[in-house]
Design goal:
- This protein is α/β, with parallel strands linked by helices and about 425 residues long.
- It folds into 3 domains: about 5-100 and about 200-260, Adenylosuccinate Synthetase, Chain A, domain 1 (3-Layer(aba) Sandwich); about 105-195, Adenylosuccinate Synthetase, subunit A, domain 2, CATH 1.10.300; about 265-425, Adenylosuccinate Synthetase, subunit A, domain 3 (Adenylosuccinate Synthetase, Chain A, domain 3).
- The chain has 12 helices and 20 strands.
- Strand 16 (about 340-350) and strand 17 (about 350-355) form a beta hairpin.
- Inosinic acid binds near residues 13, 129, 132, 240 and 273.
- Inosinic acid binds near residues 39 and 240.
Length: about 425
Amino acid sequence: MANVAVIGSQWGDEGKGKIVDWLSSRADVVVRFQGGHNAGHTLVIGGVVYKLHLLPSGIVRQGKLSVIGSGVVIDPWALLREIEDVRAKNVDITPENLVIAENAALILPVHQRLDQALEAARGKGQIGTTGRGIGPAYEDKVARRGIRVCDLHDKDLLKEKVDNMMLHHNALLTGLGAEIVDPAQIYESLVQVAETITQYAAPVWRVLDEACHAGKRILFEGAQGVMLDVDHGTYPFVTSSNTVASQAAAGAGVGPRSVGYVLGITKAYTTRVGAGPFPTELQNDVGEHLGVKGKEFGTTTGRKRRCGWFDAALVRQSVKVAGIDGIALTKLDVLDGLEQINICTGYKINGQVVDYLPSGQDMQAQAEPVYETLDGWNESTYGARSWGDLPAAAVKYVRRIEELIQAPVTLLSTSPERDDTILMKDPFVND
Ligand code: IMP
């Protein structure tokens, strides 16, 4: 099966945009399967910068079909704004090249209000969400009171569903001391966008089944990272969806065998936005250096990312829970010029050394990294296009990462430019 799923192996922001764009040039269909517009993928093509949040990365390339699966939560207004922004850069977006799942759940303005009110109510226990309403929209979906794309076809049913949903939320908003939302206002604003949105709606599972049978190459584009997965991440400091590769099947509507090769995008150091445990975080000059050199500011919220050493124990865990076949290592050049580089191989918790991050919140908070120190390198790795271009110490660092995480480096990205990539294995080609 020549399909590929791309997921983040850390806490998101691993540099998926460039890799997904590179792979999407070789795919026929690109599918988003979880998350929403909390994601931010930056693509640089021919000097034009595209900042995508909800649209699959294939959208900027002609002749590709972009699909938003039912595992995604869709803010219709954010989607329409993004479509307009991308169109303004001379990209055609029509129902011919964009399909959204008729059974995908919607994010409504009330979800954003709830997201923000709930965060405020958490006080010191804040998660640091993107405030986009992702969590409350998924809650509604699971509670079976969500509004879905297909509901936009039937105005009477839509009104009933909005009233039912708002009965619940207005009680909650009142309890939180926040302003309530008028259901009629939500209904009216949904009616206004209904036709524009539903022109893209389709049974995505059928579209993908046909694509599979026609031998098309499908790229499943993940958002966030394994450590933000609602089951396998650093709960409760996680997002509200499954970010592991198996979600590509459920969130698109294909069988697990269709997912194909799982490529884990992995940054050569570690970053995290928002609150939560981060054992290798560096609150010193080195951390500052990584943030500045790596331009570590969020694409979606502009927030400064927390930075730290590469955590091999964490990525090894991601490799196992997400079934990662190989990794794409990004931003190695950010480490250029450091005298020594640490890699975390495990944690010391309550005086005991463990080689994985246990689930307990208190254990995660206490975890102290156990480091192995390697020599750094002075030469630049920026823009390298072959192994021969890399200094010996950088090759040693990459090889040590492979050993520790128990997965090969399939691809090495050495700058934001598409061509600055060292390819060890084409993920679309079965060996
Ligand atoms: P939410 O997804 O907005 O509910 O946020 C939950 C957590 O996931 C917060 O710590 C966010 O900073 C984090 N998060 C959500 N989306 C992304 C992303 O695309 N990159 C990195 N972190 C993210």
